[in-house]
Amino acid sequence: MDIIGDAASAIKAVWGDLTTPKEPTVYGGGGGGGGGFEMSPEELKTVIGLWEDELKKVVDDGDKIDMIVGDLMPPGQDEASSSYVDSGIESLLGLQKQNESMRAYIEGYIAKLEVARSKTMATDQANTMRTT
User: For residue range 18-27, what is the model confidence (pLDDT) as tens digits?
Assistant: First the structure.
């Protein structure tokens, strides 16, 4: 049994070949200066869509956590079984709290991106009106 080889194969199956990192998609243009960046309304819409996709995953995970917490029962009436389940529920409640925090963060971030998109669209429209 080659434990290290099996682990490496499992990692490669999940994460791919880690020796050749994939380039992430970068949205927005601009360069340095001022610590800011610019995005078109279309780019912002794409980024918002990506965050909405992530939010769906987080919500689904939260639903699964809730279901597991509700279904977790000790296999027997003994102290060991009850203690084991209590520890599991405590861990799951921590996971649930983290999931809720992530959900709130993503929802807030999407709201900020929506505001930025609205402002960008208004600015673009105002600039178009000035040039016509």
Answer: 555 555 555 5
